Amino acid sequence: MKSYFRMIVSLIMICLGSEVAAQVSSGTAFAVASGLLITSHHVINGCSSVDVIVPDGRRAGAVVDADDLIDLALLRVTGIQGSTARLRRPYNVRLGESVAVFGFPLAGSLTSGGNFTSGLVSGLRGLRDAAGEIQITAPVQPGNSGGPVLDASGLVIGVVQAKLDALRSAITTGDIPQNVNFAISLDVLAGFLAKNKVAFRDAVSSSPVDTARLAELAQSFTYRVECRGKSQQAVSPPGAKPRPPATGSSKPAFKDCADCPEMVVIPAGRFVMGEVPGEEEREKVPEQFRNRSQPQFWVDVASFSAGKFEVTRGQYRAFAQATDRSSDGCFVWTGAKFEHDLSKDWRNPGYVQEETHPAACVSWNDASAYVTWLSQKTGKNYRLLSEAEWEYAARAGTTTTRFWGDDGNMSCGYANGSDLTAHAQVPGFDKFVVANCNDRYAYTAPVGSYRPNAFGLHDLLGNVWEWTQDCWNENYSGAPADGSASVTGNCSQRVVRGGSWFFNPQFLRAAFRLWDSTAVRGNFGGFRVARTD
Question: What's the pLDDT at 166?
């Protein structure tokens, strides 16, 4: 039986790779603006020239940008008279919704006028839970790569990648999956276009159109692409190229001393930083907190190590005792507002803690002194995370609002925030909007009480706000794209990320950012450490 299975897989691979030796291979592209087309990176990778087939002949395509990490490429083509696609706003896709695919499979041999298929969204991640991809059941073949995935109203919600990863899964599992195909997600596409400053069209999904009209619409902005002088396989498997990591390093967690924080190696990668359009509206974020995580932009992050947990009270105690660190009070919740209380500090933040709870009532100055002490103690380069490193670590390869998804009311298995427990036990919380779940802790929880993200990190959202190294800036204009901290702006104020036990789900989001003065201590604020490897 196994030999029969291997034979079937071999036959499929032979059919899918029939263009390997050819000097001309083919894919699909679609117009997103006047003279600008999107296709897959693997369609044009290694080409000596690219032609776009149009109704009256062919046009030369110039590669404007090609990104193998996300498998997208932008082509500039002159003389195209067709319409342009519109992207769906907001940039989210629903499991089970109807989709259609238009393209030119098998070099257009099925039909030179293009091929139209339909199906459903069958998964919101790619193979092995890869972020930035969706699964669809609409049939695709080699040559479909780079083509649009449309919703029922004709708006683009993805870019076809291929189905070869499904075959790789078949080799692993012993079964041939049926109708498992992959597409690049809409938020990744929108981020790529924004990076290239493409003024694309978008729209809110409207009523479904009939199938014939949907096919006509897709055909009006979709084209066959010919890659010339290419000797490698035209439809390389999406999983074969480097991608933003969806899982942490294979290296085990480590500690540099008995009372040092436990550290996790975070692999290098690339991600889109910031809020997707429409997120703040969907989350009903108050106006005064909006537009701080804009514009979205690509960031390359080098490998580093991050604390598996927030620095605990016990770990902070070792530092405070060794350095005789003083404290001059802390802002605490009175039931009506936050007030500075000289009797409160990290030892007594105004609620009961154990040594395994995160240190609270810690200022940015305190956190900076701690990492300096830890570096001297261990001989290693400890520091605070940059804001980009923090968001990269918090997302852990995901593109959703939170690493577990978009729903803040599902937070209680993953984060300690403002919830029904706090609503019942914290004075004044009966006036607040809280998550409709129970996380078991009214104030801070012992670190690691909730499920980790794919990097193996706990409590990046919730428990206590985490100081970062960055100086405060009102938005991301001019922000570093290499993962480093911003050292310009208002450096008497530093960025805090992640939300805390006190804050509702609107603030427990990977993209959300606030600031506080470097000397301020609050019983909702702590920190996490990084180490340059």
Answer: 46
Residue 237, both tokens: 């498997």
Give the 3-state DSSP-derived string for 237-306, with helices as H, strands as E and coil as C: CHHHCCCCCCCCCCCCCECCCCCCCCEEEECCEEEEECCCCCHHHHHCCCHHHCCCCCCCEEEEECCEEE
The tally of domains found in the chain comes to: 2
**C-alpha closest to that of 72 among 127, 11, 147, 153:** 147
Instruction: State the sign of the Cα–Cα–Cα–Cα dihedral 338, 342, 344, 345.
Output: positive
Task: Using the Cα atoms of residue 312, residue 314, residue 315 and residue 319 in order, give the sign of their dihedral.
Answer: positive
Q: Is there a contact between 208 and 419 (Cβ–Cβ < 8 Å)?
A: no
Distance of CA 107 to the CA centre of its chain: 33
Q: Which of these, 157, 150, 146, 163, lies nearest to 75 by C-alpha position?
A: 146
* Residue ranges of the chain whose pLDDT lies below 70: 1-24, 107-111, 127-130, 163-178, 230-251
The first and second tokens of residue 503, run together, are 């804050």
> How far is residue 409's CA from residue 32's CA, in Å, rounded to a whole number?
36
For residue 120, tell me if it sits in a domain. Answer: yes
CA-to-CA distance for 347 and 27, rounded, in angstroms?
63
The CA-based diameter of the chain, rounded to the nearest angstrom, is: 81
131 and 167, same structural domain? yes
Structure tokens at 262: 């436990």
103 assigned to some structural domain: yes
Q: Is 393 left (phi over 0), alpha (psi -120 to 50) or beta?
A: alpha
| 8-state DSSP, 359 | P
Range of the domain at 211: 2-240
Count of other CB atoms within 10 angstroms of residue 116: 20
Do 177 and 316 have their domain in common?
Answer: no
Q: Cβ(109)–Cβ(153) under 8 Å?
A: no
pLDDT of residue 110: 61
Given 240, 275, 300, the domain boundary residue is: 240
Q: Characterize the bridge pairing of strands 304-307 and 263-266.
A: antiparallel
pTM: 0.58
User: Six-digit token pair at 180?
Assistant: 């498992």
pLDDT at 413: 87
Predicted local distance difference test score (pLDDT) of residue 436: 86
pLDDT tens digit string along 139-194? 888 889 999 999 999 999 999 987 654 444 444 455 555 678 899 998 889 888 98
> CA nearest 498: which of 355, 387, 419, 404?
387
Domain CATH number, residue 198: 2.40.10.120
Q: In angstroms, rounded to a whole number, what is the distance separating the alpha carbons of residues 78 and 132?
A: 30
